[in-house]
Each structure stands twice: as C-alpha cells, then as structure tokens.
Amino acid sequence: MADELSYVIINPYTIYKSRTGGVLARLLTRTSLDLVGAQMFAPSQALVDEYAQNIVTEADPQDRHVQELIRDYVKENLAPDPVTGVRERVMVLLFRGENAVRRIRETVGTFKKNFLGGESIRDTYGDIVYGRDGTVRYFEPAVLASPNVEEARMKLKIWARYSDSDGGLLEKAVPTVGDPRHERTLVIIKPDNFKFASGRPGNIIDIFSRTGLSITGIKVHRMTVAQAEEFYGPVRNVLKEKLAGSVGERARDLLNSALNIPITPDLQEKIGSLLGPLAGEQQFSSIVKFMTGHSPTETKGEARNEPGTEKCIIVIYEGIDAVRKIREVLGPTDPAKAPPGSIRREFGSTIMVNAAHASDSPDNARREMGIVKVRENNFKSLIESFYQD
User: Fold this and answer.
1) Active site residue 357
2) What structural domains does the chain harbor?
C-alpha cells in the first residue's frame, strides 16, 4: 500500500460554527492516519482563484454538478470580502499514511441528492438543499478534500506556495483586535492525547469552543529538549521549593516506619531543604521527557535541538479576555481538583499528564509562542519534503 499525503480544508462557516473539533475528531478516529501538519490561512484572491480553477475535473467521481457547486462555493466563500477586503479564516490539516487520500475522502463523504444520516463529515456538518423545481437552494460542503492522489499533490503544492503570504499566525483576523481587552493566548494539546488514535484532540478543541474565542494559529509540533527546558524553565525553581515540604514529610514517615527513627520538626525541615531541590529537578526532568520523549540529562549537544518523538498540537486563540476564558475551561493543574466539564477533569489523569497547557498571562503567551516558534512555516516544508521532485 502506498504512503500518501492528503489534506482537509475546514471551511470558514465550519470554523465560525465551532465545528472544527468535531471534524478533527472524526478524521482522527475514522482514518487512523497520522496528523502531520496544520496551518491557518487567510486566503488571498489569487490563492482562491488558482485553487478554484482546479476543482472541476474528469477524475473526480463526484457528480459534475456538485463539483461546480463546490467551485462556486470556494470562489464566493473563501475569497476576501469584495467591499471591505476582510479575509476569511480556513484551516488546512495534513494527514499521512497508507492510502491516505482514499481514506480521507471516504470519511469526508460525497453529496448525493437525497442523502440522509450522519455517516460522513458532510452528512453531519454539510448541507445541500434542493427546491421542488430541482434547483439548489442552499449548499455548504463543510470541508474540502482531494478526490485522488494526483490532485492531492497538485493542490497541496498550490497551498504550499501561498503558505508564507496567506498562512501562519493570522494578523487582524478577529473583529475585537482594536479592543483593549483583546488578548492572544497559547494552548498546547499535550502528547498524552496522541498515544493512540482517538478523538481526544478534537474533543478538547470542541470544549475550548465554549469560550467563543477564535482560532488564529495552529501547528503540529514536536518539542525539542532545549525548547521544553526553556518553556518550563519558570517552574523549575518553584518545584524545588514546593516539593521541600512534601519530601520532608515522606522522609519522616519512611525513616520512622523503616528504621524506627523519630524525626523532629526541625530535622524534617532540614531533610526537606536538602532533598527538595533534588526531587524538584527530577520532577522537572520528567516533564521535559513527557513533552519530548527524551531525558534532558541524556540528551547532549545538537541532539537537544532536534524535534522530539512526542507530538502535540499548538493552537492560538484570540478574543476578549482570552487568557482567563481559556484557563477557566481548561481547569486547574490537578485533574482531581478540576470542576466537572472542564478539559482536565474530562481528559487529565495526573498533575503532569493533564491533557493541555494554557498560558497564564498575555506576557507568558508571547514568551511561549516565541519558544515553540508558532510563526515557523513547517507546513510548507512538510509538503516540499514529501514531494521531492
């Protein structure tokens, strides 16, 4: 079976209606393909025109009339507003694996005149409504995907060419940008959500949609050891200080039970001060290994800057009071203390394996976005490296 690269374009209306998470969950669970890349786009007229002119083809098994509807939909709904020039937001997801194009297309689905049910993504999130005279009264395809391998290659190269100018971390894409309460914040959907094929990443995005905030950036990322150490650097000393008390208590109990040695409060405090930093450093190393797949003490030289083995998704949200709204939906660090319905209560298991991270201030959001290089265009390099010709 052939190793293929395929794509799904999530349309502006699907994003606007906060259906992005549901679409992603379907794609991950029903295709079992590897999500290797993702990027937000604000398509220019040039990108829309070039993509649209390649939609209607003889090789597409879908009815030609439907192909023409999709072409006209793209030209109307993905293009900038002809009056204001405001661009729409679309999300492009890249999937890789055996027979990726066919598996994606089957999950996306095709339109039939009297289709019913929710078997495919388009069955659930798309619509084609005919009038009594047979004319189409309403059409919403929800997502776009390629019908065959050759078109996937050709269309992905189109999006790659425009990815620097039209894609990445979108600027001024949200109406509230001029409001003093407007914020941009970072979310990391952590590696524990990718241990096996599941809808967890999509379900987490779906819960974040409760905030009413807008996604303006997305990236599939494998954090390096150097990035993880810098990213989590602020908690390093906090862990050393925080664990001193609990380590002292545990040492007291162990020495008392194992050796019958009574430990005074003063001695307990001294033991905690001595062992706390060691425990904190061990905990910090565990966090780095969890995020990267590599132990920091065993990773030397240039290897520290190599992408890790663990995958995460970075999502940038924008809107009024974005930091507070995201953290409220996420829940506290300890899943056991998180309220019902929060992300960490639903998907977390321990203080470290707690589903997602969110910036705790606009300043930290800027710092963290710089560390994980949210503006870096790995979408383009993924496509170019796959199609080396």
Assistant:
1) yes
2) 3-168+374-386 (3.30.70.141), 179-215+311-372 (3.30.70.141), 228-304 (no CATH)
